[in-house]
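Progress note, sequence design subtask.
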């Protein structure tokens, strides 16, 4: 995409690697995958990880991290926003700056762009410690679609990889394809696809049922399949409670084999994304 008149892309302050988690269609579990991927990075790769919520009109990160009533972020002496933290994971969202969880954002494009730029460049990921190390990886939860926010991100920031999240239905994959093409036009490398709610595992016979279609339909997207996450009740209930599923160990889960399959798939996604980022100084 032509960059005539645009400033050069740059890194996000105090962040080594940037991963965008995106989808063409809303409601496919993108934010849930983003949060759990961040926790999985931290747990299995001992990385310093943060989450940035760029879904301006429908921020989900405050709910998923149990930070809905945490109050507004503090500022550094230079005026930068200090991320809020829960479960050891620092996060920033427009939801932290609104008067309430139900407050709508009714902004036009220019205001959205200004908010996006502030969230990208005016957050101090070192936290309250000016001598802190910053982050190894920042996971960005993108809004659905291909509008102002992904355009601003792609034009302003050096993004190291994009993870596309979709469910197996053709209607969801069709929009995922548009998101992939948009990232390619912005020269954002596509790391691969996560198929969420890919199948239901019968709790009595452990047989997989592809309720929303086979994963074969995703082959037409032309990108690597990073993993297939099964339908798992604890993922939904944990997110609603502000307790991401990646925090649970297998012994504390009541999801049985489905929960085990979900963890194995998420670990596989984590490893493949980590490898694509070419980070070599952390080990299991």
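Output:
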């Amino acid at each position: 995409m032509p960059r005539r008149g645009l400033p050069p892309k740059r890194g996000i302050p105090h962040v080594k690697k940037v991963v965008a988690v995106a989808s063409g269609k809303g409601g496919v579990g993108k934010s849930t995958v983003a949060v759990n991927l961040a926790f999985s990075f931290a747990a299995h790769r001992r990385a310093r990880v943060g989450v940035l919520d760029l879904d301006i009109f429908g921020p989900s990160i405050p709910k998923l991290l149990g930070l809905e009533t945490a109050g507004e972020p503090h500022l550094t002496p230079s005026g930068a926003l200090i991320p809020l933290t829960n479960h050891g994971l620092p996060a920033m969202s427009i939801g932290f700056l609104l008067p309430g969880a139900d407050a709508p954002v009714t902004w036009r494009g220019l205001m959205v762009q200004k908010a996006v730029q502030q969230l990208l460049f005016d957050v101090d990921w070192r936290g309250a410690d000016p001598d802190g190390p910053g982050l190894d990886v920042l996971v960005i939860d993108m809004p659905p679609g291909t509008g102002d926010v992904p355009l601003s991100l792609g034009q302003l920031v050096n993004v190291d990889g994009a993870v596309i999240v979709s469910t197996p239905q053709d209607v969801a994959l069709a929009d995922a394809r548009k998101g992939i093409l948009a990232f390619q036009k912005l020269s954002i490398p596509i790391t691969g696809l996560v198929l969420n709610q890919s199948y239901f595992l019968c709790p009595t016979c452990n047989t997989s049922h592809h309720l929303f279609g086979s994963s074969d339909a995703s082959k037409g997207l032309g990108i690597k399949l990073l993993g297939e996450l099964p339908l798992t009740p604890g993922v939904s209930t944990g997110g609603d409670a502000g307790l991401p599923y990646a925090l649970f160990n297998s012994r504390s889960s009541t999801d049985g084999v489905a929960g085990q399959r979900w963890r194995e798939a998420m670990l596989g996604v984590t490893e493949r994304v980590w490898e694509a980022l070419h980070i070599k100084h952390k080990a299991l």
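Residues 280-284 have pLDDT under 50 and may be disordered. Work on this subtask will continue into the next period as scheduled.
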